[in-house]
Specification:
alpha/beta; seven-stranded mixed beta sheet
Length: 443
C-alpha cells in the first residue's frame, strides 16, 4: 500500500448545523453503517478478462495506464465517519486480490492507524486520505467544490479506467472517466423514511438536492443495495438515472458463528436515533437480557481497560447499554448473542443485520420493505415500528430455543448465499464490464 500526501484539513469538533436536519446529521456523523442483482450475470469475474472489452476514451497517442498484465485501474472514494469505510475495505481488498490497481481517496477525517491496518500488504493500493467535510456537514458545500477539484487532480494523475464513488454528490465530476455512484444513505431519503414527506426548503437543501440529482443523472450507473433504496432515490431526486442493485457484502472470516451462545438480544444504535429505533426495546419488559451498543463504528483498542456499561431502567426492567466497542468486542457480542433486533425504519444498507447473520444470530426485524427484501423468510418480523409487537416476538423466541436456532441458521445460510464480500466484488466486476463512456460523448 502506498500512502500519498494530501490536504490535511482539520475538522472542528462541532461540525453540525443547528437545523431541522440535525437528526440526520447527528446520526450520520456517528453512524457506522451493512438473486436480485441488477447486473448481467456472466461467469467471468477476472479483471484481466475485463480489460480487452473496455473502451479507452483517452486522447489519441496517450497510452492506457493498465499494467502490462492487463489489470484495470479503479478510483474508489470513501468516508471515515460511517459504515462506508467498512464497505470500502471489503471492496478494495477484493478488487486488489483480483489484480486491480486501486486508488482510494477518503473524506471526512484523517483515519487513525487502526482504521488503515487492513491496507498493509495490499500492493495494488494507493491511498490518499483527506479531511474534506462531507456534503451534509457544516461548510460541506464549501468543501465540496475543493474536494471535487482535488478528485479531478487525482484522476488526471492516476488516469483510472473507472470511478467507483461511494458519495452520491460526486457523480457529476467534470472528467471523462466512466463512473458509478453507490447510495449509502442521504438526507432526503432519510427524511422521507422518518417523516413521510420532503423536508422544508432552504438554500442549503436546494444546493444539496440539485447536486445529488445532477450526480445521479451524470453517472453511468447508480447502485443501491436494495430495490427499496432505489425507489427512495427516485422519490427524492427523480427518475433520470440508471439504477442497479448490488447487495452489500462482508467477509465471513471476520465473524465466529460457532462459539457457545448466551440467551440474549443485541441491538446497535443510539437511543435517540429515530432511524435506528433501538428505543423500541426500552418500552416493554423482555424475558431475555437485552444489550444495546450505542455506537456503530468500532473504536481502537484502548491502552487501559475502560468500562462504559450502564443500565437503563424503564420501571419494570433494565437494559444494558454499552458505549463504543472495539472491533473485537463487537465481534464477541455478535457471536455470543442468540438474537439480533433489527429495529431500523431507515436502512440503506442493512450491514449490521448482515454481520449478525454471519454470527448465526436469529434476526427479529422491523417489518419494512427493505428487511423483507434482504431477508425474506430467513428472519422473524414484528409489526412495523411497534414496540409491543417486538416484545411479543422476542417472548416467542424466549420460549422456544429450537426456533431461535432454526432462524439463526436460516439467517447464516442466507448471508453466505447473498451477502459475502466475494459476491459483492464479483457483481461490481460484472458491472464495470458493462460501463461504457456513452454519456461522455454528450457531456
Amino acid at each position: 500500500m502506498i500512502l500519498k500526501g494530501s490536504r490535511l484539513k482539520k475538522i472542528r469538533a462541532s461540525c453540525l448545523l443547528p437545523s431541522e436536519l440535525t437528526g440526520y446529521k447527528l446520526a450520520m456523523a456517528e453512524a457506522s453503517d451493512a438473486g436480485g442483482c441488477g447486473v448481467i450475470q456472466e461467469n467471468s469475474s477476472l479483471l484481466t478478462a475485463l480489460a480487452p472489452k473496455l473502451e479507452d476514451n483517452r486522447p489519441e497517442g496517450i497510452p492506457s495506464p493498465r499494467s502490462p498484465e492487463g489489470s484495470v485501474r479503479v478510483l474508489v472514494t470513501a468516508d471515515t465517519f460511517s459504515g462506508v469505510w467498512t464497505y470500502s475495505r471489503e471492496l478494495v481488498s477484493g478488487l486488489v486480490t483480483h489484480g486491480a490497481q486501486v486508488t482510494l481517496v477518503s473524506f471526512g477525517e484523517i483515519p487513525l492507524p487502526h482504521q488503515t491496518a487492513w491496507m498493509d500488504g495490499l500492493h495494488g493500493l494507493e491511498y490518499h486520505p483527506t479531511a474534506f467535510r462531507l456534503d451534509w456537514m457544516q461548510e460541506g458545500e464549501q468543501d465540496f467544490h475543493a474536494a471535487q477539484d482535488y478528485l479531478c487532480a487525482i484522476v488526471r494523475d492516476t488516469r483510472p479506467d473507472f470511478l467507483h464513488l461511494n458519495q452520491l454528490s460526486f457523480g457529476a465530476l467534470p472528467v471523462a472517466t466512466p463512473r458509478l455512484v453507490v447510495a449509502h444513505g442521504d438526507v432526503i431519503t432519510w427524511w422521507l423514511s422518518i417523516h413521510g414527506h420532503l423536508p422544508a426548503p432552504s438554500a442549503w437543501l436546494k444546493w444539496y438536492r440539485a447536486t445529488i440529482a445532477g450526480s445521479l443523472k451524470r453517472a453511468e450507473a447508480v447502485v443501491t443495495t436494495s430495490r427499496w433504496m432505489g425507489e427512495m432515490l427516485r422519490l427524492g431526486y427523480g427518475d433520470d438515472f440508471d439504477g442497479y442493485i448490488i447487495p452489500p457484502g462482508r467477509n465471513p472470516i471476520y465473524f465466529n458463528p460457532f462459539v457457545t451462545k448466551e440467551e440474549s438480544v443485541l441491538a446497535i444504535g443510539r437511543l435517540w436515533d429515530t432511524g435506528k429505533q433501538v428505543a423500541l426495546l426500552t418500552q416493554h419488559k423482555h424475558g431475555l437480557p437485552v444489550c444495546i451498543v450505542g455506537a456503530d463504528n468500532p473504536i481502537p483498542t484502548p491502552t487501559v481497560p475502560i468500562r462504559a456499561d450502564v443500565r437503563v431502567s424503564t420501571g419494570e426492567h433494565e437494559i444494558s447499554v454499552k458505549g463504543a466497542q472495539t472491533e473485537s468486542q463487537l465481534r464477541s457480542l455478535y457471536s455470543k448473542s442468540t438474537i439480533f433486533a433489527a429495529t431500523s425504519c431507515y436502512e440503506p444498507t442493512g450491514m449490521a443485520s448482515i454481520e449478525a447473520a454471519f454470527s448465526r444470530c436469529a434476526l427479529v426485524a422491523n417489518d419494512t420493505e427493505v428487511y423483507r427484501e434482504l431477508w425474506g423468510d430467513a428472519a422473524l418480523y414484528f409489526e412495523r415500528n411497534n414496540a409491543e409487537s417486538l416484545s411479543e416476538v422476542l417472548g416467542q423466541l424466549d420460549e422456544d430455543s429450537e426456533l431461535v436456532r432454526l432462524y439463526g441458521t436460516r439467517a447464516y445460510n442466507r448471508a453466505r448465499e447473498r451477502f459475502t464480500a466475494r459476491r459483492m466484488v464479483d457483481d461490481y466486476l460484472r458491472l464495470y464490464r458493462q460501463l461504457r463512456p456513452a454519456k461522455v460523448a454528450v457531456a
